[in-house]
Input
Amino acid sequence: ILNVEQSPQSLHVQEGDSTNFTCSFPSSNFYALHWYRWETAKSPEALFVMTLNGDEKKKGRISATLNTKEGYSYLYIKGSQPEDSATYLCAFLSQGAQKLVFGQGTRLTINP
Amino acid sequence: DVKVTQSSRYLVKRTGEKVFLECVQDMDHENMFWYRQDPGLGLRLIYFSYDVKMKEKGDIPEGYSVSREKKERFSLILESASTNQTSMYLCASQRPHLGGNTIYFGEGSWLTVV
Output
């Protein structure tokens, strides 16, 4: 079974501060990496789908980088706001696989 | 707006009951999935389907079955509910070409088995 690790498991950040967290995945047979944001009582929603080594994607104050050779992706949030409070999930797909493997998530809480 | 709808948000069932969790998507997606979410364990795949009447086991299929009679509908069935199936269940759908396409999730169904 493939191992996808996210760290830290939880994080408390002061409003206005920037933060980042990590998704680690196997460095061989990479095909794609997904990031999702899951707010309480809502559906998880897609942030990014990344497929190329060195890829960097941005959506407002949130950005992500991808290093497939060393097997990690970083998610950055600049100037955190209370609405950024959510669980952030990454999901890894290896070549030839039929299903995504999700990490356990990073639970982010923004303190006003 | 794309929509994945899970018909039951909160259910309480007795041990041994047969339970149906229904999921409908309006995006004409081929791929559909059922996951369960438990604290500390992340999202775990129960079953998935790439086409009507087609199903594949995920990582934790024991105690579950599924039905996909129509493209838009994917049902999860607990033949005889047990307390260890108390969990939050998420349905999802996706266009083909798994890697490059995002997954769209429902809002989840909270099942308690007593």
About this structure: The interface with chain B takes residues 1, 31-32, 34, 36, 41-46, 49, 51, 89, 91, 93, 97-100, 102-105 of chain A (CB under 8 Å). The CA atoms of residues 89 and 105 of chain A lie 4 Å apart.
